[in-house]
Amino acid sequence: MSVDPSSLVVTLGAAVGALVLGVAPQVEVEQAAAVSHTVQERAGRLLEGVSAAIDSLPPGAQASAEQVVTETSERLQAEIEALLPEDAVSPDEGVGESGVGETGSDAKQVGTIEPTYSTAVTPMLPPAPSISPFTSTAPDVPIGAVAVFAPWLKKAGTICDGITAPVLAALYSVENGFRYGPEAPVSPAGALGPGQFMPGTWEIYGKDADGDGKADVFGIADPVMASGRLLCDDWNLIEQWKKDGRVVGDTLSLTLAAYNAGRGAVLRSGGMPSGLPDYEIETKPYVGKILAARPAFERMLSPFMALEIPAQASDLGQQVIEQAFRYLGLPYVWGGGNIQGPTGGGFDCSGLTSFALHAAAGIVLPRTSETQWHVGIEVPLDQAHAGDLVFGNWQTGGPGHVGIYLGEGLMVHAPTTGDVVRIGEVFPDMRARRIV
């Protein structure tokens, strides 16, 4: 049976409205969690049906239909979350573990921790928004987490043709949920950082990629580039083994299996590792998860692929950007945000810059865009560095808007009521000031 895309969207909109409007707007605190759970259950059943309907559309209509229903589902998610008291919305706690890998000289190169978000992990990334619920294979990873890693995923994805940025992103979502920093969890097998490197493997592949003078397994740049090099080495080796008739199978699948179980496991099995329980319960599902998540990350990373890693960016400038990226997708709230983070559920433009500068460099800015304009020194916009502030919407009292410059004519900012923290083009009237 064919499905008309416009009818599908109208039907979904009506259903979402019924779901949301059917809930009393004034919900007692003690009832909020139960009501939200009920709405989510009903929404889940609806979304399953819509996903099947989208799959039945002609290929040319699926993308546009999915985009519209995704936007609708995000509105539903916002309505659901609004039912919960602020202190009842918290990330999942606990860390799941899968398998311990091989032993001996071909020991598991990296450990795998299922991605959850624990309050013990810093930096903490907001739990929403995540990938569309209509993508059944998409991991529950905040867009802000991916954005922080995106420039380095892009760079590492150019080392060889076989390993792309979406592959690396999918791998990192499965390995450790993009969690980084000195308090990021270590696997029971001793695997470290967002790339889950065993110490011996890190000694070989860990390099200083961002020029800060150290190879930091708990950082972002160094592990991502190390993963790119390791995967490309394995890719080339497996391609040669296939030519020699020593292994058979899809090269990418075998490369991912080697990252998890070791190259020796691939060679001994003549292809996908098999014969041991760890291979069956860990390695094969691990490869399947990454391959299934790759299309979702292709869509997720597309807005960031135009961004370069500016050569002139200072370490502090990059940290300012990373702090702002943590909250991509968070709603604009007039007067929202301060040095501690979002308030009232979001940020306004100067609240975002206040938070990012303080979180990255300990700098306390005045609260408004007009007063922030008087901090630091003005630089020509064509000489602005990543992490500089850019000001626009000039009025009698000064600038009415402020954002954080990314390079390539782009900024991250909290635009206006009804919008969210996002990446956008620098306004034509903008001027730049260097704070860090």
From TrEMBL:
A GO MF term: cysteine-type peptidase activity
Coiled-coil portions: none
GO biological process, one term: proteolysis
Keyword annotations from UniProtKB, A to Z: Hydrolase, Protease, Thiol protease
Domain NlpC/P60 residue range list: 314-436
Region Disordered, residue ranges: 89-108
Keyword Hydrolase: yes
PROSITE patterns found in the cross-reference section: NLPC_P60
InterPro entries listed in its UniProt record: Lysozyme-like_dom_sf (IPR023346), NLP_P60_dom (IPR000064), Papain-like_cys_pep_sf (IPR038765), PG_Endopeptidase_C40 (IPR051794), SLT_2 (IPR031304)
Membership in a protein family: Belongs to the peptidase C40 family.
Name of the protein in its database record: Bifunctional lytic transglycosylase/C40 family peptidase
Organism, as annotated: Rhodococcus rhodochrous
Highest classification ranks of the organism: Bacteria, Bacillati, Actinomycetota, Actinomycetes, Mycobacteriales
